[in-house]
Backbone:
């Protein structure tokens, strides 16, 4: 009886090994790690003491200082309170075709993100079709009409995370375009 039980287990062994191997293989399949924003680097300046001194909040009125960690305003030149400088910069911005093109590229990249996010959800469609068909199988050929109407639903099973990575890629591209706009 023991030998009979051994024979049954021997037949199940390849199936068990195959199933466990397939599960291990599928669980190990991912498309890249999640992006982690790198930590902020320490100061790369020559004079770190001066940076710390200028960054202190207890400076006297009118004394030069730095607001560390504060985002620079988009209209940084207005801090100089010069009408001539304001006019010149505004005229340069209004006539800058690079900014117009960069703004259009940002909108296009944002649309690409929305399109990529659409792949994460089921696709629903409604369609209709009509046609005419001739059949030559019988003794006499016959002509018939056919009509088809109804909804269609489709979903892309994203087992390996490709669609999610595509969304991340498009979001990163949008961020890149925003930085290019700011640089221009």
Residues:
């Amino acid at each position: 009886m023991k030998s009979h039980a051994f024979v049954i287990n021997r037949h199940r062994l390849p199936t068990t090994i195959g199933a466990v191997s397939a599960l291990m293989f599928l669980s190990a399949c991912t498309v890249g790690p999640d992006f982690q924003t790198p930590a902020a680097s320490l100061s790369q300046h020559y004079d770190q003491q001066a940076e710390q001194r200028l960054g202190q909040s207890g400076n006297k009125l009118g004394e030069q200082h730095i607001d560390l960690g504060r985002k620079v305003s988009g209209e940084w030149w207005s801090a100089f309170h010069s009408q001539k400088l304001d006019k010149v910069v505004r005229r340069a911005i209004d006539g800058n075709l690079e900014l117009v093109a960069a703004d259009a590229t940002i909108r296009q990249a944002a649309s690409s993100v929305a399109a990529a996010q659409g792949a994460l959800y089921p696709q629903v469609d409604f369609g209709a079709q009509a046609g005419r068909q001739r059949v030559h199988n019988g003794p006499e050929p016959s002509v018939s009409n056919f009509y088809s109407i109804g909804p269609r639903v489709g979903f892309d099973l994203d087992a390996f995370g490709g669609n999610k990575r595509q969304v991340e890629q498009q979001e990163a591209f949008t961020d890149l375009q925003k930085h290019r706009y700011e640089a221009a």
